[in-house]
Structures are given as C-alpha cells and as structure tokens.
Protein 1
Amino acid sequence: MSLLRVENLSKEFGGLRAVENLTFAIPAGSVFSIIGPNGAGKTTLLNLLSGVYVPSRGSILLDGRDLTRRPPHAYAASGIARTFQNLQLFLNMSALENVMVGRALHERCGLAAALLRLPALERAERAARAQAEELMHWVGLGDLVGAMADELPYGSLKRLEIARALATRPRLLLLDEPAAGLNATETLEIDALITRLAGSGITVVLVEHNMRLVMGVSDHILVLDHGRRLAEGAARDVRRDPRVIEAYLGSGAGAA
C-alpha cells in the first residue's frame, strides 16, 4: 500500500522547470531513493514533499490526504520529517536539546504552564528529555548525550539531525545527502541506520550521491534528469539501464 502518492507534480521558477510532471508512489516501510546529476531537481523535489515549496501544478497525497498547498508545519504534523544537505542544527545548544526541539510539535503545555512552571510542564520536559536520550542511543550517539552540539564531529552531527527528525514521530523521513562529507566508516554507519529506520516501519526517501550506499539500501529508485523522470525501478534494474549509465552512473557502473 502506498504511503505517499505524487501526481503530475511540477515546479517552475520563472522560466526554469525544476521539476516537471512527476508521478510516482512510495510504499509504506520502503527505502525510496531519488538520484540524478547535479541540477536534476532532487532537492527541489524534497522541498516540495516537505511543504517548503508550493507546486506549480500537481498534487501530493499522504495516506490519501491532499497536502499540496498546506504550510510546512501541516506536512510535519501529518508525519513528514526531513534532514538537510547543509546541517540545520542549533550549535549553541546541547546535542540532547537539539533532539528535544523535534518533540515540540507534540507538546501540549501552553503559555500559562510555562510561565507558572506547573507540574504538567515539568513532567513534559522530563518525558521529552527521556525520549531524546533514547533516540540518541538509537542512532548510535548514546555516549554523546551530555555533549554540546558544537563539540560533535561532522559524522555525529549528521546522525544528530536524524535523531531530531525522529523526535517528530514521522511516518515518512526525507534524507537529503546524509552521507555527504562522511568517511567510509561513517558512511557504513549511515547505511546501517537507514536499514534500521526502514526495519522499524518508517518510510525513507533518500537523496544521495553515494551510489554504493543507494544501491545497497534502496527498494526502489527514481532517476531524475533536468527535473524529469529518466528511469524508475528496483536497484538491479536501474543500475543496468543504458540511459542511467550514460546520464549519471558512468560507463563502468552497469557491469558492477
């Protein structure tokens, strides 16, 4: 069953067609990867799927609910979370506090409780801290719970941003270049984390240039070229598609 369905989706910036007439469906619990050359429209598509951009045409449906022209917070409230190619973290806060921010969407304590420091607020803070600590352990950062965010190495910051996204309790997680700038060991950790995410029931949409990672974790791959669908299918089929080899993977990729 499809969790997300995109129908005839297009986005134009003036005369530039960044995404053109895309239709696809993402099954629940799968890893759906989007690949393509620089400028193919991958990040623009993620921005559309998270409500950052409003489509020029087309529709985005999550579990049959039309989100197309809703504000970004409505996408988040519906169960869509994301990370960014360029880290968007609060480096002047602790690692734990960064994860706790992700839980804010689900907090029910109002202004009066905050001003008066009512017991309900204290209980909510304890619960948020406990969940954030649990998520840090879950992504492999359990030994850094007490650290400041600006003390963490780059690879750990990537996983911290995933932990914060998980604190929103997403059904659909959009990952924008999670392995960018990582060394081989850190990339393997991200590979294992994506596999765990899908195994836990979270649907993952992955934009990534590391083809070894993409081919290893993906259930389905969509290949973009200049905002259009070039190819789509299982990893084993996409990697052998002559159009994909010519446009993106390189002449030697099909034999791997």
Note: The chain has two domains: 2-79+170-255, 95-168.
Protein 2
Amino acid sequence: MGFDVNQMEAALATVQIALEATGLLPLEPKQLLKPPEFTIHSVDTVASTNQMLWELIDQGARAGTVAIACQQQAGRGQWGRQWQSLPGGLYLSVGLRPQQAIAQAPQITLCSAWGIATALRQYQIPVQLKWLNDLVLNGHKLGGILTETRVRQGHMTDVVVGVGINWANPVPETAIALQAHLEGHQSASLLAEDSRRVTSLEMLGAIALYGIMWGYTYWQRYGIQALIPSYEALLVNMGQRVEVEGRSGQVVGINEDGTLRVRLTEPLLPQEDGLVSIKPGMISLGYGQSQLPLG
C-alpha cells in the first residue's frame, strides 16, 4: 500500500489545530506556526529519501520540498550506519535553506529532533531525545535524524533533514514501533478525541514534518540558546555515566555547537572544573546505560 499524500496534506491542517488547542506551544506569536506550503513527492521504493531530495533540489526544487518513501533500499543514519527501512515505517526528508554559517549545522539536527519530540508529546506520546539525533520511547529507539548540508563560502546554501520513525515496520530489540505502543497505551479519553489520535502513517508524517518546521522556526527566531534548556529537559543522557579516554565522567548537558558537556570525576588539574566537550562519534552512549543523580 502506497503513502497517501492527500491524506497527509489534510493531516497537516489537523495537526496544526490539535497542537494549538493544547495551549502548550512554546512559540509565540502563533502565526509563526502556520505550516509552509510543502511540495510533497512520494514513491514506493527509493535508495534514500535524502538522496531523492538532493536530486529534486538539483532540478530546481525549492525549500519546503518533501520526499517520502514506503521503504528505502540504502537508508543511512549517522556516520554512514545503515538504517533499516522496511515497509511500514516513516521515511521522510524535507529541504531547507537557512543561509547560516556551516558551524551551526549541528543546531539544525538539535532543533529538528526537539521539534519532532515536542510535537509527539502533545499527543501524549512521551518521546525523549538521545544525543545527538535519536528519538527515544520507553528506553528504546523510535527514530533517528540525518541532516546533510551543502556549503558555499562558509555558509549553508541547502540543507536536507531526513527522519526515519518506526510505525508498523519490524524493529530490532533495541527499538520500538509506535503503532504497537499506541495500541497498548492510548487512554480511552484520548481515543475519543479524533484530533489528538495518531491513527495512520500519514498522520505521523504530518506530525514529524510539522515538528521539524516548528523546531526550525523556533531556532531561526530565538536562537540555539533559547532552545537548549528544552532540549536538555528531554535528554535521556542527562546524568549518564560515561568514559572519556579512560576517565570517568557524567553527562551534564549540551553546548551551542551540539557537543556533549561532560564533567569528569577527576579533573587533570585541581583548578579545573572538569568540564569537557565531546564531539559526536567520540563516545558511544548506547541504550540502557546507567545514570547518576545530577548535583
């Protein structure tokens, strides 16, 4: 069964109404939340939606162009890792043109992840974030984000934000499928509210797309400093014990450049505060790692 673009376009309007009705939107004024005019391209099978979207951009596609596939044959995660993209999941990419310095590229991943998680939480789905780009539900991986950029003279000219979210597709032990979770956890009162039910892959796509644009708009208007506290509030890694080059430490937050803030248990020098910044790829946080109380 293919992805129903018309159903998703209708869901975008429904999602906007439902999120505004919660009264919990962190963005003001509300007119900033109006979804842009998306141009949605849907196919059954593709190598990756990011690759598909880059090809559309090369053909003149504007910002707001969206690529969706029912399955990917060469889906990718961070560091080139393969992302399982079997039928039943959401595989979506959207094009942006931020025109900011390339040093701010990790911030787009942060704001996109935060936006999607925050939007899903308004549907009583307690999604959290795993640094840098994972969506987490009940300690299991729900989805991931892959941001790719093109640069000219030190500034991003085009950005593609790709997201994969497990819906009804088979998942490994460390992951979770959202449809099965909802069937077992949605309350009777919530089920009675059609506007706040996630009932289809198309509705999930609308929430994810709206969430990306929500986070992106918030970031562009208020900057990363305003977003970091909200991101950290959803970060499952806060307080997690880690090892950095053989030295133990504890996660205490993130920095504006997207790096992880870790306080080492024993600083090299007594006068040091023990804070170090960890770039993505330097350590593995895994799932189900131990945490300590922050203090």
Note: The longest helix spans residues 201-222.
Protein 3
Amino acid sequence: MEARRSVTVHGVSVTEAAQNPVLSFSVDGSAVKARRTVVENANCSRCHGTFSKDFSVHGNSRNDVRYCVLCHNASVTDFDRRVNAIVSGAATATEPIAFKHLIHKLHRGDVLEQQPYIVYGFGSSPKNYTAHDFGELRFPGDLRNCAGCHTGTTWQLPLPSGVLPTVTSVVSGGVEMFGDPTPPTQDACLACHDSPDAAAHAQSNTTGSGSESCGVCHAEGKVEAVSAVHAR
C-alpha cells in the first residue's frame, strides 16, 4: 500500500508519505510462496538516505523495493508515457523499465556506451510525458561492487530457474508491438555492458528458444566467474 497526507509546517503545506506496508497473498487460497530477495532497502539507503525522507521516488510515496517491482517488472516498458511522444514524432522505440534493467543502467549512467539513455516517465507537460536522460548520471562508487546493492549471492550465476525474460517492444500505429524478449541473464549483464560486442557475445551463446549458456564461463568456479570479473 501507499499512503500520503498533506500537512502544514510553519505555514507551508507539504506532503508526507508513509512507509509502504507490503502483504503477500495468493489469489486462490494456496500457500503463499516467498518472493526472491535480491536487494534490500537498507542497501539502497547507504547512498540514498532513508526512503521517503532524503530519497524522492515518485513523490516520496514509493519507498520499498518490494513495492517498486510491482510496476518495474519484466513485462513492462515505458510505452504508456512514451506513446504520446512517438505520436508527436519526438521518440521512436520504447525502453524496458524492469527493475534490474533500469537500475543497472541508472547506476552505469554516463559511462554507458549507448547514449543517450532516455526513459519516458511522469511529468507535468501538456501531453503528460517527460523524457528523462539518465545517461547524464554519475556513480560515485565502484560499479564492480555488486554487493553494494545485492543481498547474499544474488548477483552471481546461475540465476534461479523461473526468472522472467525482459520484454522488448516497438510502437506501430500507436500500438505497442512486442518482439523477442531478452533472456534474464543477458538483460542483467547487457544493461551495463551495452557495447555491440558484448551483445553479440551474449546472443551467440543463447539458443533460439532463449536458453542461455552464460554459466559455462561465468558461473561460480568457472574461468570467468562474475565474482572474479567484478572483484575489486
């Protein structure tokens, strides 16, 4: 849930938000299965401060990563906000807003090879879209420190079975047309390693059905394990 209220402080009206309470439930009465914990609020707040206090996310009303992924899931792009820009001729292709895709790219920021990194989101323009160039962001830490955000070994390979691929799409005639999704390991890695060479390497090691062989070289104990490549 999210909740907010307007209060007056020394004659100034401000909006304050509650921390998001999260309740897991099943829609058919079956036993609730715990979701994966990949990142935690405490890790985010090391750099960003306390959610809903020093870190503004959508007006301070979304402040729990378990809540963030409800919208920033693997099946969604920025189409809803970008479509008006496409109709007006200001933009073309969409961008995924899956959490791992978006957050990896945001933190990579100005060292991404593919620039600019534009995501369309909420704004106050008359057509209700705003282009955000996140390719201008700079990261003050060491990007090899995956454990700065991730919990445990969730940044290592192999990923658990059942992790969803990330959708890709284009817009034709104002309608979102979905193409082949990006397999989960590829999307996590190529969001940062965005050179054409890296993409070709990943794609040449993925079958037509989407099965990835990344773990052959990059799983723990292998010749180019993620933990070795990202060692600081």
Note: DSSP finds eight helices and six strands in the chain.
